[in-house]
Amino acid sequence: MANPSEHILYSGGARGTEAYFGELAEKYGLQEVNYSFDGHKLERSRGLRVLTADELELKDVSLTYVSRLMSRSYSVAPLFRKVLQSICWQVSSGHEVYVVGVIQDDNTVKGGTGWGAEFAKICNKPLYVFGQAKNAWFRWEKNEWIEVETPTISHRHFTATGTRFLEENGKKAINELFEKSFG
Question: Any idea what DSSP says for residue 44?
Fold first, then answer.
């Protein structure tokens, strides 16, 4: 069993999935880094890392590219761009990525959370998504989602992000992930 104190959760501290991952990280004794920026509302401040404008710029993304990749339109508002940039920091910092959300028919994940999953694919990082609607874990493998048993966190540096609308089955899945990995 892994030593929790040697693990670092990289997240964003937002309401829902990220806050719940953070609560469990604290409960199990993991370190936590929550990337944010000035003006961003957070639910968790443990391990807060406020990104400067220059740091955000390092992870700038083309909203046109993201919209095409995800087959949807995204806001061009500066706040939304900063959210996408901070998600890039989260995904870049972890060696594997865990997401809770909804896998759509086009193999993307719904909402802004979807950018985290797509960026993990681009970076070729192990990617697991708990699909709340399907009530199952999936791993991205060879350009498709493969249903898997509850995974085990296998890297000391991992990322977690997901929906703000965390349901009971999503909480249960995260609990089982932590219990299997650190219990």
Answer: -
pLDDT digits 0-9 by tens, 107-162: 999 988 899 999 999 999 999 999 999 999 999 999 999 999 999 999 999 999 99
Buried b or exposed e, range 97-109, using 16+ CB within 10 angstroms: bbbbbbbbeeebb
Residue 20 Cα to chain centre, angstroms: 12
Cβ 61 vs Cβ 126: under 8 Å: no
List pLDDT tens digits, range 15-43: 999 999 999 999 999 999 999 999 898 99
Q: What single-letter DSSP state applies at residue 156? A: S
Output phi, psi for 108, to 5 deg.
Answer: -95, 170
Contacts of 8 (CB under 8 A, 6+ apart): 30, 31, 32, 33, 93, 156, 157, 158
108 neighbors 129 (Cβ within 8 angstroms): no
